[in-house]
């Protein structure tokens, strides 16, 4: 086992940890980054599978994500626009396929009006509560002790409208059923993108991609950090005193003045802290859990749906694949569709064997885009639930009451230990942008502490 002395040890080489480290280096500090996996990037992961580049984790960039956009630019990476020309598809409760354009789903006029009313209501709450400190708002406890499903039912008797609004936050974002998270947690999710309107606007939230995949961001950051980044070093133990830490991983022991733990908060309790963390930290980590979603990639010899005038965008709260998009790579002849199967639907298809599951999921893509969709040349399911160092997707969120009760403590340092992750409240919450912001914030705190 190798022993290293450093000023700061960063645990986790996801985008949060890899955004913190360069700031510390710029401020003149020695940094070591310890990463459990044999690769960097965490929930950003690009692989060539069956001859096509697939983004197995996070991929989209939206115009409000200025920390990510700044990073992409600084690293000299290029972006391209998601293909969106043509008509979108919606499948209704009777299984009928309806083509439409624009953001408004083709549902009954009174349901459209009701969805617009609920959207305005959520936009108002978002404007009032914000992304940074939702727990500090006078209505925090009230909104945090009712499930989003129950809250929607209180606001509207139009079940179809409620079901669609629930889908945008539940299946599509927190990847939990809307009975399993609070209205306040839903407001935070929307606030992360500036407004609920932004969050549900696929033109906005799914705007661009990075050429070569979004994992280029952590890969390039790590490349620049060079030998400071050690992969294959899962951290098992963290001993701390007010003056510093000793961090033990499988291959390296680092003695440092400060630590930044840049891991999903749900995995933090797997580290043996000595002395143990304070009561508030123990409690708050137990009130967070990961959602679950299968990201399905289907690659075809050409983007055949475009010939039919379709954009590749599709929605239905009635199908297992609740949303799908054209995910064709930059300057690629092959066409790729990406679809998502979320929360309890994911449980359902995971209970099937792999062949059945593939058939069932492709049947939904065929319901959206026609029979050709059932026969891809490459089919792949991103299954983050089985990833030892993640255990779900996209991110972690609080149970009922957890955000208002514990949120204020999520980033509070414990002695020399600081925290960073996209799963903490803030702009870009549960997105790469939020991970970068949290890394920058933790680095600034550490620099200030070291300079004091
Ligand atoms: P992570 O990426 O989870 O990084 C934490 C790191 O810590 C990991 O590398 C992990 O291996 C490491 N680690 C864990 N335990 C230990 C240990 N004991 N010792 C050492 N290292 C450890 N976001 C978007 O902005 N746009 C999208 O389109 C998008 N789509 C997504 C699709 C999927 C399928 C998924 C899974 C996520 C998506 N996201 C998206 C979310 C985004 O990927 C994450 O919010 C972000 O990448 C998280 O970064 P992070 O650094 O905070 O955490």
TrEMBL record:
<dbReference type="InterPro" id="IPR002937">
    <property type="entry name" value="Amino_oxidase"/>
</dbReference>
<dbReference type="InterPro" id="IPR001613">
    <property type="entry name" value="Flavin_amine_oxidase"/>
</dbReference>
<feature type="domain" description="Amine oxidase">
    <location>
        <begin position="15"/>
        <end position="446"/>
    </location>
</feature>
<dbReference type="Pfam" id="PF01593">
    <property type="entry name" value="Amino_oxidase"/>
</dbReference>
<dbReference type="InterPro" id="IPR036188">
    <property type="entry name" value="FAD/NAD-bd_sf"/>
</dbReference>
<comment type="similarity">
    <text>Belongs to the flavin monoamine oxidase family.</text>
</comment>
<protein>
    <submittedName>
        <fullName>NAD(P)/FAD-dependent oxidoreductase</fullName>
    </submittedName>
</protein>
<dbReference type="InterPro" id="IPR050703">
    <property type="entry name" value="Flavin_MAO"/>
</dbReference>
<keyword id="KW-0560">Oxidoreductase</keyword>
